Amino acid sequence: MPLDRLAERVGATDETTQEFYGRWAGLYDVIARYTPGVPALRRRAATACRLESGDTVVEMGCGTGANLPSLRKRVGPEGTVIGIDVTGPVLERARDRTARYDNVHVLRGDATRPPLPDELEEAGLDVDAVLATFVVGMLEDPAGAVDDWCDLVGPGGHVVLANAARSEVWYAPPINAVFRAVVVLSTPPTTKLRYEDDPHLRLDAKIDAAHRRLRDRSVAIADETHIFGVVRLTGGRLE
Ligand SMILES: C[S@@+](CC[C@H](N)C(=O)[O-])C[C@H]1O[C@@H](n2cnc3c(N)ncnc32)[C@H](O)[C@@H]1O
To answer: Which atom belonging to ligand 1 lies closest to the Cα atom of 32?
Structure first.
């Protein structure tokens, strides 16, 4: 069926990421759903997608599917939710989490190779929104990925990003020290990022680039920080 063909098209490639998130899928799932402040942030991010009943939303790097039930609730039984991730074991959890919905599709694929407009047309899909939470910092070219996602939704569509980066609040130093430790520990150990002197600076640069590109390409729907300034939420509507 067309959606399976789309999954083949975006075929997964990043083995380091898959190995790391595959091994830690269970722990990540707990952190992703229960870290204080994160459930509220997820609700804000889903709201910023401005979904209506019957809409189609794609979540890039959906992980264990923490956002998928809330996206399904917003698009209703007539809508379509597609979660894409490179890592098999996290996808299994996402599939279990959404098994009761026949309009939530969890596909293995690469978020940096989204389907092309003619492939979407063939699959009978018109994407209204793209959501990516805690993903762009892992991509080689985050701004380029945001460009692709903006093209995917087209005029009138919404793109929403949420990412952890260094805080700029006045009491930031201790928070940023913890943040730096978390970045090092949560970065796949065989990637270059983990061995750089300041992996959190490189992560910050990637996140800045992605959020800036979204702000440049869209009209602001959300421009917020959460959880002591550590999480940035940017949402925009394409003109
Ligand atoms: C930090 S987790 C975030 C998961 C989920 N978005 C959430 O909010 O809990 C990052 C996820 O991005 C996925 N990922 C990283 N690079 C990817 C890529 N190029 N394409 C698809 N998924 C990717 C990883 O497999 C992992 O599940």
So the answer is: 9
**Probe residue for ligand 1, chosen from 138, 163, 206, 232 as the CB with the greatest number of ligand atoms within 8 Å:** 138
Give 10-residue mean pLDDT values along the chain (239 residues): 56 64 77 86 97 97 96 98 92 95 94 81 89 95 97 97 86 75 64 60 91 98 92 97
Looking at residue 1, its pLDDT comes to 43
Superfamily of domain 2-238: Vaccinia Virus protein VP39 (3.40.50.150)
Residue 168 alpha carbon to ligand 1 centre in Å = 25
**Shortest CA distance to 49 belongs to which of 206, 239, 194, 237?**
237
What lines the ligand 1 site, CB under 6 Å? 14, 17, 21, 32, 61-63, 66, 84-87, 90, 110-112, 133-135, 138-139
Which long-range contacts (C-beta less than 8 Å, at least 24 apart) are formed by 171-180? 171/228, 172/228, 172/229, 175/228, 175/229, 175/230, 176/200, 179/230
Predicted structure pTM score = 0.88
